[in-house]
Specification:
With about 190 residues, the chain is an alpha/beta fold. The chain contains six helices and eight strands, in the order βαββαββααβαββα. Helices cover about 40% and strands about 20% of the residues.
Length: about 190
């Protein structure tokens, strides 16, 4: 991945694997558009009793995100399982550390979207997507949903795989985000003296 190549940051938390699978589908959609890349990143779990002691590099899957991943992205897709109609605590915890980016306006006018997975059909998919929307708007990002964002129903045991229709929605959302990111990236380059 070249530093000069714009990228869509796909930042997610996944406990049972469905949100991670959706993230990979969004990445496939992004990378189907020439001239832009996808960067998959995750966040570590948090613990209610003590500070998490996860290794600095996860044993599998995407590496942990840092603020530079956000600072330099051309677009952002946030993914989280649904927790009582809200994003999962690990993703919220990470977003709560981004005030330095907000203070510097690092994410203003960059396209963003969200995606989610839940156990039940009426498990709060839309409200979860809306909770992820709030910090994106606060950062001055431009929301590009479908209309809210892709979602998946994993079932009561979280064992239902992402189906072909859900994968297609994720890929379409990735493509849309990539196209918008490229257009905005080109505009920023033209504005630079």
């Amino acid at each position: 991945m070249s530093e000069a190549t714009p990228y869509v940051l796909i930042l997610y938390y996944s406990r049972s694997g469905a949100t991670a699978d959706m993230a990979r589908q969004l990445a496939a959609g992004v990378e189907s558009i020439p001239g832009i890349e996808a960067r998959l990143r995750t966040v570590p779990a948090v613990s209610p009793t003590c500070e998490a002691v996860d290794p600095e590099i996860p044993e599998e899957g995407a590496v942990y995100a840092d603020l530079d991943d956000l600072r330099h992205c051309s677009a952002l897709a946030l993914g989280s399982p649904t927790r009582f109609g809200n994003m999962a605590a690990p993703l919220k915890y990470f977003l709560d550390t981004t005030s330095s980016l907000w203070m510097n306006g690092a994410l203003i006018d960059k396209p963003a979207s969200a995606f989610t997975s839940t156990s039940s059909l009426h498990g709060g998919q839309e409200s979860t997507l809306l909770t992820m929307l709030v910090p994106l708007l606060h950062h001055g990002m431009v929301y590009a949903g479908m209309p809210y964002g892709a979602s998946h129903v994993a079932g009561a045991r979280s064992d239902r795989p992402v189906d072909e229709h859900e994968r297609a929605l994720c890929k379409a959302q990735g493509k849309r985000l990539a196209k918008l990111a490229l257009a905005m990236h080109k505009m920023r380059l033209e504005e630079t003296p």
